[in-house]
Task: inverse folding
């Protein structure tokens, strides 16, 4: 069975800076380095977020439609 490291997105993998809009949030380099180190040791890495759940009333399909594309773009940009 493969083991995973689970990391929260907002305020953990991203730096939580007042007034910075989501697409411009900076990567928390310390957390990113730790997840990369885990990957090198054979762990999978899962990024979790509750972003948009309140806005879309907990409706996962709406969150995936409206929020997921922006999250994926940010993750892709941060490598």
Result:
């Amino acid at each position: 069975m493969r083991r995973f490291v689970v990391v929260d997105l907002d305020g953990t993998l991203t730096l939580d800076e007042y007034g910075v809009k989501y697409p411009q949030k900076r990567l928390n380099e310390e957390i990113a380095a730790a997840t990369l180190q885990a990957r090198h040791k054979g762990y999978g890495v899962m990024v979790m977020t509750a972003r948009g759940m309140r806005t879309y009333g907990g409706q996962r399909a709406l969150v995936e439609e409206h929020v997921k594309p922006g999250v994926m773009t940010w993750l892709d940009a941060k490598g």
Summary: The mean pLDDT is 94. Strands lie at 4-8, 44-48.
